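Q: Structure tokens for this one, please.
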Amino acid sequence: MTGLSFAYGSNGLGDHRLADACTFLADEGYDGIALTLDHQHLDPFGPGLDRRIDETRRLLADHGLSVVVETGGRFVLDPRNKHEPTLVSPEGAARRIDFYRRAVDISVRLGSPVLHLWSGVDRVDDADAAWDRLAAGLVPVLDAADDAGIVVGLEPEPGMVVDTIAAWERLADQLDHPALAMTLDIGHCQCLEDAPIADCIHRVADHLVHVQVEDMVRGVHEHLPFGDGEIDFPPAMAALQDIGYDGLVSVELTRHGHTAHTMVPEAIRFLRAATPSAPSTTDQTPGRVSA
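A: Here is the predicted structure, written as tokens:
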């Protein structure tokens, strides 16, 4: 077994300045931050972007925080329509592709090896056409990521075109692209997948580059504080250790920013308690010597 690296999503720290959020997370013992590109912390379309990227990189380094760049800002592209346009939208997908290309560049400059994104919602109820638009729109994003030396962690998200592990596998088989990897949300496994969470983790082990975590109940896509849902966390944490997962495990409590002052410390205490201890580097068994 290996230790796990815990992060907290900046989308759950929207009432905090980024500098204050980084100090808070470092003080509480987090290893990283899942940084959503949005107006609160790092606006990908705001003035002075180059300067702000440099400031953010220094801020992360000063606090010893790793980073995964996330792209799920609710109104980053359209102030009236949540998450729109997406790669599956009949119109405007080019704006999403441009955003993702910007995000690739930002990821490289911040030292994030993973760009996290999701597929989008089919709002015209044409599954085949939505799938084709998604596949076509992903290719230039994946090509840009591959050229930049990073991977895209595409997350199965309830209600979206890629909503389950099986849908992700279908897309991966179709595209067969070296830059396509997976972000797995443990809560989403509880929400939608038929298999136990530990089995889901083992199933995607070869593709897993980012993990999100929160509590959830079966069939309800609502991110809950730890202990408020149905998830049995120790087997899930043990499964991540078993597969040797070495990326970030990022808390995603987007709608609890107003209580982040309590959620941040409570979350890492909960996750540490739910994670089996790594074995000692010194084997105390009589007659044996550790390598």
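A few notes: The chain has one domain: 5-274. Strands lie at 5-9, 32-36, 66-70, 114-118, 151-155, 180-185, 208-213, 215-217, 220-224, 248-251.
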